[in-house]
Specification:
binds 2-oxoglutaric acid; globular; Jelly Rolls; binds fe (ii) ion; 2 domains; eight-stranded mixed sheet; 22% strand; 327 residues
Length: 327
């Protein structure tokens, strides 16, 4: 039971008694001031029961109970709506709960093998690394950069915004394939589709977006100018899904962890980009945050399932990358 600023919280019977007492005290004082004697007041008090004396208090109490009941129901409805909004937001408005629910994904992801994942900083290899040498590093999940690994790719001379615009414009159904079966990531843009992003000529000075390609026609052209890295182990299958990220100087992708099946590589075709990496919580004692910068022609390997990552584009040429997962 608690009384605070004349607001009373307690059971109904006690409530009546308490209110009557307060009221009676006031009445007694008024009566005394009006000259009514104590015996007369006492006679009145014993003659009537609590309920008879204060029926309006009971009515008020019932009304207040109903009011509180309304508030409880209102609160419950608001809480339910908030919970639903939260779940929907977590799902990214998606149709499939498990695919996009980061809470579920984070709770169910396997713990990272910390020693293997960090093991002493970023590995730097040169472009003449052989398949055999590379196979030692390919599945360790240690951040790695092969300097100049893509330096001879034709993509270095062909990739531009207009290259992608005309490629997608000329392959029937390619925009729809991305929209329906792949992903468009708007990062630093207001576009909702790849078509809108590639066709807006009034784009603000700074922008960044990425997408995965689901069009076989587009993939065939991309493969000609951006082949599979030659040093990947022979059995490492090149995923049919290419990821392309492009944008101007400034922030790229925001901090995130991916929940994909396999490790991935990314070739820096134009511009320079720094990756900032942070270990997953279970590795924070074993691993330190790392950074690595990819310049034009470098190929970066980051196990984006094991490292939180964010990217920043350097001033100068726009950054364009292409990458893929591998087995
Ligand atoms: O290239 C970027 O800016 C981000 C890439 C990324 O998040 C990824 O490959 O998982
Ligand atoms: Fe990522």
């Amino acid at each position: 039971m608690a009384v605070n600023n004349n607001v009373y919280v307690g059971g109904p019977g006690v409530d009546c008694v308490f209110k009557v007492r307060v009221l009676c005290d006031a009445l007694v004082q008024d009566a005394r001031q009006a000259g009514i004697t104590t015996p007369a007041l006492h006679a009145l008090y014993v003659a009537r029961t609590c309920h008879e004396r204060e029926p309006h208090l009971l009515a008020a109490e019932a009304k207040s109970g109903r009011r509180w009941q309304k508030w409880w129901w209102g609160g419950a409805v608001v809480a339910l709506a908030l919970a639903l909004a939260l779940v929907w937001n977590e799902m990214g408005g998606a149709r499939c709960l498990v695919r996009n629910n980061y809470l579920v994904q984070e709770a169910t992801r396997p713990l990272a093998p910390c020693r293997r994942v960090c093991g002493g900083g970023v590995v730097t290899l040169s472009s003449n690394v052989t398949q055999q040498e590379f196979s030692r590093w390919a599945y360790l999940s240690r951040p790695l950069v092969v300097r100049g690994g893509a330096a001879h790719w034709p993509a270095l001379h062909t990739f531009s915004e207009s290259f992608f615009r005309s490629l997608y414009d000329n392959v029937p159904g390619s925009y729809q394939a991305v929209a329906q079966d792949c992903q468009f990531l708007p990062f630093r843009t207001r576009y909702l589709t790849l078509h809108a992003a590639l066709h807006d000529l009034t784009r603000p000075q700074r922008w960044y977006f990425g997408w995965s390609n689901c069009s076989p026609g587009v993939a065939a052209v991309l493969r000609e100018v951006a082949p599979r890295p030659a040093f990947l182990p022979l059995h490492a299958e090149h995923s049919a899904l290419d990821w392309i990220f492009m944008g101007t100087h400034g922030p790229g992708a925001a901090w995130h962890l991916d929940y994909v099946q396999r490790p991935s590589w990314q070739a820096q075709i134009r511009g320079s980009k720094t990756w900032h990496l942070h270990p997953v919580p279970e590795c924070s004692d074993t691993c330190s945050p790392l950074s690595l910068t990819a310049h034009r022609g470098d190929i970066v390997f980051v196990d984006t399932n094991q490292w939180y990552h964010t990217t920043v584009i350097h001033p100068g040429d726009i950054s364009i990358t292409i990458g893929s997962e591998y087995d």
